[in-house]
Amino acid sequence: MKVAVTGATGFVGSRLVERLQQAGHTVLVLSRDADRARRMFPSTTFPNVEILSYSPLQSGDWQQQISGCDGVVNLAGAPIAESRWTPERKQEILESRTLGTQKIVEAIAQANPKPSVLVNSSAIGYYGTSETATFDETSAPGEDFLAQVCQEWEAAAEKVKDSGTRLVILRTGIVLGLGGAIAKMLVPFRLFAGGPIGTGRQWFSWIHREDLIDLILAALTQPEMNGVFNATAPNPVRMAELCQTMGQLLNRPSWLPVPDFALEALLGEAAKVVLEGQEVLPKQTQAAGFQYQYPKVKQALEEVLSKA
User: Fold this and answer.
1) How is residue 80 annotated by DSSP?
2) Which secondary-structure segment (H or E) carries 308?
3) Domains of the chain in sequence order
4) What secondary structure does DSSP assign to the chain, as a single string?
5) In the chain, fewer beta carbons within 10 Å around the N or the C end?
């Protein structure tokens, strides 16, 4: 199988490329920074990986390379919570997802032969935030900025169906692995200053990175998978429980909270990504028969922290 991957140098994408390579598949990495991608995936270690420079928001010759790919995994998108949401930053967050997906769909429409499946990333931000509601794949969308982004993102991906290509949309929660959110949380814990962010009552819907990769691989290879699936573990926790578990595993205190105003001062409106949450259940994912390696947060954190 030959798979084109965008966002391949990111936290999830880099591991996906490794797993595809290990399984004997050919990978076409579409990267804005081809030199960086070549450093990450040297040909001596990744002989089945091809690197292609592309401009994700522009049509171009790169689109022709989608012809002959069996599947496409679209993970590209500007980081959500790494800086304040200025009007310009909001536009970048939106366009990196919607226009980027439009160009992938355009490439698939032009391809001959066409990929049989597009696995397109989305996020649980689709549902909005709540401390009391529970969401699954059938729940209505929220009304905040991230919910609007996810709706437009998914709408752009839906157009691939016009080409006869199967579409799987993965609404992804917080990904646990050695990197990402956990890497940022480890620093205060190691300094004996760990604790819940904000009230600690906000829901934390998560998935272990290996389970997310398994789900992507299932979406690529199982023709019966169609539509929207929540890429979250079946046991979401509140922030306070997550931090308490981390403290226990690290043998560090977990009582010192990060106050709301500190994050709001740093990130402004973007702070809501971590100060507010949602309880998301993967009903469609489980109904499809997906088996989690790490269904509970303690075993997921044990695996992650054992490598830290």
Assistant:
1) S
2) none
3) 2-173+208-232+281-293 (3.40.50.720)
4) -EEEEESTTSHHHHHHHHHHHHTT-EEEEEES-HHHHHHHS-TTT-TTEEEEE--TTS--GGGGGGTT-SEEEE-----SSSS---HHHHHHHHHHHHHHHHHHHHHHHH-SSPPSEEEEEEEGGGG---SS-EE-TTSPP--SHHHHHHHHHHHHHHGGGGGT-EEEEEEE-EEEESEHHHHHHHHHHHTT----BTTS-SEE-EEEHHHHHHHHHHHHH-TT--EEEEES-S--EEHHHHHHHHHHHHT------B-HHHHHHHHGGGGHHHHS--EE--HHHHHTT---S--SHHHHHHHHHTT-
5) C
Overall pTM surpassing 0.90 (yes/no): yes
